[in-house]
From TrEMBL:
This is Transcriptional regulatory protein TcrX. InterPro entries: CheY-like_superfamily, OmpR/PhoB-type_DNA-bd, Sig_transdc_resp-reg_C-effctor, Sig_transdc_resp-reg_receiver, WalR-like, WH-like_DNA-bd_sf. It comes from the Bacteria. The keyword Aminoacyl-tRNA synthetase does not apply. Residues 8-122 form the Response regulatory domain. PROSITE patterns: OMPR_PHOB, RESPONSE_REGULATORY. The modification 4-aspartylphosphate is found at D57.
Length: 228
């Protein structure tokens, strides 16, 4: 799935080698990319560049990623924010989400995973930018809230649509139940994790996936969509 031309990304990190690696990879995917080595520079660049997605490192000298995220949100501009951190701490994650971050990734991470997260944010927040997204036998039309599988429109409830979209866009990645609940139901969802199994079962029936070859279960880990 190739990124659309005209999608603007702002990368903010005080580690030059990370900036260079991500910049080259994302430009190769078709994105328009600008980088900043610190929070103050990021804010100055964002004012003119108006990025669709900002990828912010949390731990930076001076103005940290939390402050940058808070500032971007205060400007009332529509932007998706993905925060990066070297610390796998729940408090940091909750803080980032509570001030307006849309996603959170812990270093080290794979480039493919970051790309999938960016695509997911664009699909959720800027569906018109990507138009119809094709992933193997799936076609996702965010404007119609419609998913086709092998050219057949699937009859999905709104939650089934959000769940299948999340699984397909992140195809090849193992998604745990907590991750799925966070992204589809919201991080403050107070229900049981078993709700995920119920919806997965329904999606498999609608896909004719009796052998679980499309939506695979990885015991103790979560679910993964394979594009067959």
């Amino acid at each position: 799935m190739k990124a659309a031309q005209g999608v603007r990304l702002l990368l903010v990190d005080d580690e030059p080698h990370i900036l260079q690696f991500l910049e080259l990879g994302l430009i190769n995917e078709g994105f328009e990319v600008k980088t900043a080595p610190d929070g103050a520079s990021a804010i100055a660049i964002a004012a003119d560049f108006k990025p669709h997605v900002a990828i912010l490192d949390v731990m930076m000298p001076g103005m940290d990623g939390f402050e940058v995220c808070r500032y971007l949100r205060s400007e009332e501009t529509e932007i998706a924010v993905i925060m990066l951190t070297a610390k796998d701490e729940v408090d940091d994650r909750v803080k980032g989400l509570s001030i307006g971050a849309d996603d959170y990734m812990v270093k080290p991470f794979s480039f493919d995973e970051l790309l999938a997260r960016i695509q997911a944010r664009l699909r959720n927040q800027f569906p018109g930018l990507l138009g119809e997204v094709r992933c193997g036998p799936f076609r996702i039309d965010g404007r119609r809230k419609e998913i086709r599988h092998r050219d057949e429109v699937l009859e999905l409830s709104p939650t089934e649509y959000e769940l299948l979209q999340y699984l397909v866009i992140n195809h090849g990645l193992v998604l745990s139940k907590p991750m799925i609940l966070d992204k589809v139901w919201g991080y403050d969802f107070g229900g049981e994790e078993n709700i995920v199994e119920v919806y997965i079962r329904s999606l498999r029936e609608k896909l004719g996936d009796k052998e679980h070859r499309i939506i695979r279960t990885l015991r103790g880990a979560g679910y993964r969509v394979d594009l067959l």
